[in-house]
Amino acid sequence: MENSSSMKEFILLSLSENQGVQKTYFVVFLLFYMLTVAGNLLVLTVTSSQHLNSPMYFFLCHLSFVDICYSSVTAPQMISGFLVENNTISFAGCIGQLFGVHFFGCTEIFLLTAMAYDRYVAICRPLRYPALMSRRLCSRMVGVSWAGGFLHSTLQTLPIALLPFCGPNKVAHYFCDVHPLLHLACADTRAEGLAAVANSGVISLSCFLILVTSYVVILASLRGQTLAAWHKALSTCGSHIAVVILFFGPTTFVYIRPSSDLSKDRSAAVFYTLITPMLNPLIYTLRNGEVKGAVRKLCTRKVGSRNGKG
């Protein structure tokens, strides 16, 4: 039995084996990826401005950066794979991709959880909001999110990197992930599989329960309030709830159980690696007047500067 370092490369499967469908996917997912990067760069630029300096926009700025990195880990490799017969990736590249997917994915989970706490304080403790959500605390929460993502990804990646791989080398996924790689290892991987489910599953499920609990408390606190108060609270939380459902639904489906149907995992993974990062800027922009106003000012300023140069 050879060790893992002897496996020089893996072959990633496409979402379809039909050549015509692959060309269509190439155009569609290239457009999705371009929209993801452009949309999140726009939100990143707007939310980092001095006019939007509340904790919510501080978290949203980091979320947009994570979304760009998260989709960039998988999308370019997937898109280029639609144009070649064998979409190959080196062993080191595969392990790096595995690390990146879990690093940015877990960081996003923790950021969404931190944003839920921010919304809870804003609605349930409005008078103490400036004191409770200080810049120092927000920075610490973001730092913990990044550190937690790094720790989680290390614990997921290291056991996989140390497994022996002696063939075949076809990964039943469009990117390197835990379950598809465990299927290729030349060893008993039950312990690693259970550890992966426990690691990713517990994080996804526990954070999701925290999020649900926070919104139950928020709704309970609105009992007896006016219709205007309900509308304001729901408009404040609506964007975040939509993002949470889009991201946590597919993620929990893939990682909460030992995977037996990798084709379903591939379909679900498209949502949390590309669709959700693409929709996040639209969701937050369309439901947020301050962000829309800042975007209009930014566009007006750029048009004005171009006309001035002309």
TrEMBL record:
<keyword id="KW-1133">Transmembrane helix</keyword>
<feature type="transmembrane region" description="Helical">
    <location>
        <begin position="137"/>
        <end position="155"/>
    </location>
</feature>
<feature type="transmembrane region" description="Helical">
    <location>
        <begin position="202"/>
        <end position="222"/>
    </location>
</feature>
<feature type="domain" description="G-protein coupled receptors family 1 profile">
    <location>
        <begin position="39"/>
        <end position="284"/>
    </location>
</feature>
<keyword id="KW-1003">Cell membrane</keyword>
<keyword id="KW-0812">Transmembrane</keyword>
<feature type="transmembrane region" description="Helical">
    <location>
        <begin position="56"/>
        <end position="75"/>
    </location>
</feature>
<dbReference type="GO" id="GO:0005886">
    <property type="term" value="C:plasma membrane"/>
</dbReference>
<dbReference type="InterPro" id="IPR050427">
    <property type="entry name" value="Olfactory_Receptors"/>
</dbReference>
<dbReference type="GO" id="GO:0004984">
    <property type="term" value="F:olfactory receptor activity"/>
</dbReference>
<dbReference type="GO" id="GO:0004930">
    <property type="term" value="F:G protein-coupled receptor activity"/>
</dbReference>
<keyword id="KW-0675">Receptor</keyword>
<protein>
    <recommendedName>
        <fullName>Olfactory receptor</fullName>
    </recommendedName>
</protein>
<dbReference type="InterPro" id="IPR017452">
    <property type="entry name" value="GPCR_Rhodpsn_7TM"/>
</dbReference>
<feature type="transmembrane region" description="Helical">
    <location>
        <begin position="95"/>
        <end position="117"/>
    </location>
</feature>
<dbReference type="InterPro" id="IPR000276">
    <property type="entry name" value="GPCR_Rhodpsn"/>
</dbReference>
<keyword id="KW-0297">G-protein coupled receptor</keyword>
<dbReference type="Pfam" id="PF13853">
    <property type="entry name" value="7tm_4"/>
</dbReference>
<feature type="transmembrane region" description="Helical">
    <location>
        <begin position="234"/>
        <end position="256"/>
    </location>
</feature>
<comment type="similarity">
    <text>Belongs to the G-protein coupled receptor 1 family.</text>
</comment>
<feature type="transmembrane region" description="Helical">
    <location>
        <begin position="268"/>
        <end position="286"/>
    </location>
</feature>
<keyword id="KW-0552">Olfaction</keyword>
<keyword id="KW-0807">Transducer</keyword>
<keyword id="KW-0716">Sensory transduction</keyword>
<keyword id="KW-0472">Membrane</keyword>
<feature type="transmembrane region" description="Helical">
    <location>
        <begin position="24"/>
        <end position="44"/>
    </location>
</feature>
<dbReference type="InterPro" id="IPR000725">
    <property type="entry name" value="Olfact_rcpt"/>
</dbReference>
